[in-house]
UniProtKB/TrEMBL annotation:
Domain of life assignment: Bacteria
Matching PANTHER family: EXONUCLEASE, POLYMERASE_HISTIDINOL PHOSPHATASE N-TERMINAL DOMAIN-CONTAINING PROTEIN
InterPro entries: PHP_domain, Pol/His_phosphatase_N, Pol/histidinol_Pase-like, TAT_signal_bac_arc
Protein name as catalogued: CehA/McbA family metallohydrolase
Polymerase/histidinol phosphatase N-terminal domain span: 188-252
SMART domains: POLIIIAc
Source species: Streptomyces luomodiensis
Gene3D superfamilies associated with the record: Metal-dependent hydrolases
UniProt xrefs under SUPFAM superfamilies: PHP domain-like
Length: 506
């Protein structure tokens, strides 16, 4: 296909951002070999300019009798000037059921993590779904993530192998409840990757890291695929609940679908301008999941969150090591609490996840600690949705945070202390297990109104008295010392933080 043809078709694709090329056509009569050794291979080459559609579909006409479809691809990676994006191209595939947005045809996605994959009834490359290779029009999908100024040259090779189809094993999914400790605080990490997308850990290695981190639950959230949902057979136990989910990775931000039903795929092929996110946020909730925008101010291409927060159930304010983009997210999230304190709208609880992909990235840095009635998907989600949760950099840190009024009135994290505007309130934080040179601070709708240092022992009880007229809410942070000694006025990295306690009558 010539450059001018691609440009013309790109314009025709419009806001949908999709381009469909001429099909690769295979017939059984052309297959080389004998018996089950028969196979066919075809290769397509092309060029995509800057401004190419988000998704380029290569139709593959698959005849009957195919046992396995295998795909490989390459693309050029030319040198580019400093500050200019080079070439990066993702890949996936849809089967004969079609490429309709949110349809049933999805069979796998590996992004830019793999250069080849194969699918048969018996098995599939991680990131892809095993199942019969039925006759019909399949579509290899290319996702030109970034394109260099000179364009992107690609080559896609498809091999069909003929023979008896075999049997697809029934996936074994994790149970949705573990033994637990009754109503208790449970530690979890719900943004994690393995070899089923762009991670390097196997599911077994991820689970071992989670147990070593002292976690009670994890959620598997691969980029734009659900192939990991059936990959944890035998890895859960009374001590560890494994939830299923997905990181829906669009060109305008990523969202963690936390705790969706096993085997439910949520589509990602839209931008904010397409006005489709609400539809798929509802699909997440219909599948029993929570909608959690991930790293809203992340620095990678496509990571910035552009869909707004009206559809969110919580927001990931802390992703991996605490960095300036997390600082921005925490400040932005805190600003939204003021409106909720006036009763002008609901508030979004804050959560934190490691987004760990490989060593030396630490599973459980950070982790969300949730007050739940038991160790189950439903109870954990209820705790997160209610804001009964706090975030810590490791399981070494423990804390309690409460507000107490007269006549035995009491409220914990995420709750409201029903007191009059002038009634005295005592806010108390107990924290242990933090490192040296840390400090505690209490933040309100006016900003920080109290702070104190943590002794070298790493354990402190901090108390502050206030009223609902002075503080509409109070939340706590435990911070490491700033690297510049405080010269910039920017606090040090987070060690732990809570969701707010609300003060006053509604």
């Amino acid at each position: 296909m010539q450059r001018r043809d691609v440009l013309r078709l790109s314009a025709l694709a419009g806001a949908a951002g999709v381009l469909t090329l001429d099909p690769m056509t295979f017939t059984q009569a052309d297959a080389a070999g004998a018996g089950d050794a028969r196979e066919q291979t075809k290769t397509l080459s092309g060029h995509l300019p800057t401004g190419a559609p988000d998704f380029v579909y290569v139709p593959v006409e698959v005849p009957g009798g195919v046992r396995e479809i295998a795909v490989s691809y390459t693309y050029d990676k030319p040198s580019v000037p400093a500050g200019t994006q080079g070439n990066a191209c993702d890949i996936g595939i849809f089967d004969e059921r079609g490429t309709e947005l949110g349809g049933r045809g999805f069979r796998g996605w590996s992004g830019g993590a793999r250069t080849e994959f194969a699918i048969s009834a018996e098995e599939a490359t991680p990131g892809y779904l095993a199942g019969p290779v039925h006759a019909g029009t399949w579509h290899v999908v290319l996702g030109p993530y970034t394109v260099a100024p000179q364009g992107l040259d690609y080559e896609v090779t498809v091999t069909l192998r003929y023979g008896e189809p075999g049997t697809t094993p029934k996936p074994v999914h994790p149970p949705q409840r573990a033994k637990g400790r009754g109503r208790a605080w449970y530690r979890g990490d719900s943004h994690l990757h393995t070899v089923h997308s762009d991670g390097k850990r196997t599911p077994a290695e991820l689970v071992a890291a989670a147990r070593a981190a002292g976690l009670d639950f994890i959620t598997t959230t691969e980029h734009n695929t659900i192939s990991s949902h059936g990959a944890f057979d035998g890895l859960w136990g009374d001590d560890l609940l494994i939830l299923t989910g997905e990181e829906i990775t669009t060109r305008n931000g990523h969202v963690v679908a936390l705790g969706t039903d096993p085997g439910v795929f949520i589509d990602w092929r839209y931008r904010a301008r397409d006005n489709r996110f609400g539809q798929f946020a509802r699909k997440i909730r219909q599948a029993g999941g929570l909608v959690i925008p991930a790293h809203p101010h992340g620095t990678c291409v496509g990571c910035n969150w552009k869909f707004g927060f009206n559809e969110a159930d919580a927001v990931e304010v802390w992703n991996a090591d605490f960095t300036p983009d997390d600082e921005i997210t925490v400040s932005e999230w805190d600003n939204t609490l003021v409106a909720a304190s006036r009763g002008d709208g609901r508030w979004l609880p804050a959560v934190g996840h490691s987004d760990a992909h490989r060593e030396p990235q630490v599973v459980g840095l950070p982790q969300t600690v949730v007050l739940a009635d038991d160790l189950s998907r439903t109870a954990l989600q209820e705790g997160i949705r209610a804001g009964r949760c706090w975030i810590a950099e490791s399981s070494k840190i423990d804390l309690t945070f409460e507000a107490v009024g007269g006549r035995g009135k009491h409220a914990g994290i995420g709750e409201r202390l029903q007191v009059g505007r002038t009634e005295e309130v005592t806010v108390r934080l107990k924290v242990s297990g933090v490192g040296p040179s840390c400090s505690v601070r209490f933040l309100t709708d006016q900003g920080q109104l109290y702070g104190t240092a943590v002794p070298d022992s790493g354990t402190v009880t901090a108390e502050w008295r206030t009223t609902a007229s002075y503080a509409a809410y109070v939340r706590a942070e435990v911070r490491h010392a700033p690297a510049d000694g405080g010269a910039s006025g920017i606090p040090g990295p987070m060690a732990a933080m809570t969701n707010p306690i609300w003060l006053g009558e509604r």
